[in-house]
Amino acid sequence: MGKTKKENHIASGFFRQSGKWAVVMVLKTIALLPFGCLYFLSDVLYLVIKGLVKYRSDVITDNLIHAFPEKSASEILLLRNKFYRYFCDVTVESIKFYRLSEKELKKRVSFVGTNALNQLAKERNGAVLLAFHYNNWEWSAAVQQHLNCRLLMVYNKMRDNEPVDDFLLKAREKWGGKAVKMGRAAKVAFRNFEQQQPVVLGLIADQRALASSPYWAVFMNREAAFFPGPVKIARKTNQPVFFQQAKRLGRGKYEYSYTLLVEDPAQTDEREILLRYIEKMEEVIKSNPEYYLWSHKRWKHKRPEGTALIQ
Question: What coarse category fits the chief subcellular location reported for this protein (predicted)?
Fold first, then answer.
């Protein structure tokens, strides 16, 4: 009986892993499609997730209602549908990134503000770059081609799907940057700093942090936890903090801009650094809210009793 269970478990694991590799093969095939076909696929996907699947509809609607309490039910519904359309485009674009050529990239993407980023990173032995889930954040990995030092891209590993995780990492690293697991980010950043090897540490810093985080602040009208790592690293190294904004110029066309958020983190209160980041995010989100990742369960945790809000 025990042997049969073990054999069934092995067989089940084999088929699950085979299924994951099959998904990767499908993704690689999609990545070969021209943009016209990709956006046709996106249009079909939009109809499916909006009308049939209703992908995370409750989460998206709840997030939008709290973020924009002044909007009517019909306005929230319209905004949710606009988000679905954007989400489908970004999904196929992220897959395409795996096969995107340098020639195609130059036609579709521009980078603004990298000169100032390069200059300060050179003077201060590196920089910290804070981005967030707005517009196509995946394509921003190509900024490495415009940087004078190595881009370290901090990411959360997909523990339950290694083949897909590997697919995404190859797409991100093909432009010369290096992906670093979140748990190793601080160690790697400090090591490069001590060895005087300037790097730009890029973080998608609006990830959902643990409820135990000491950093809680109001973000889009709701209390949310933030990871302490970005602020801690910036203050310890005194490397300038930059903010990345992704602006959509058209379907599959983006402008990424880089602006100085904090020049001297060591001389700036850690709460002030975080609040500046939140203020910039909210400013960008409110300008075109449909481009934020509302399907993310960003506000899932509740602030523990005794943990103060940063104000």
Answer: membrane
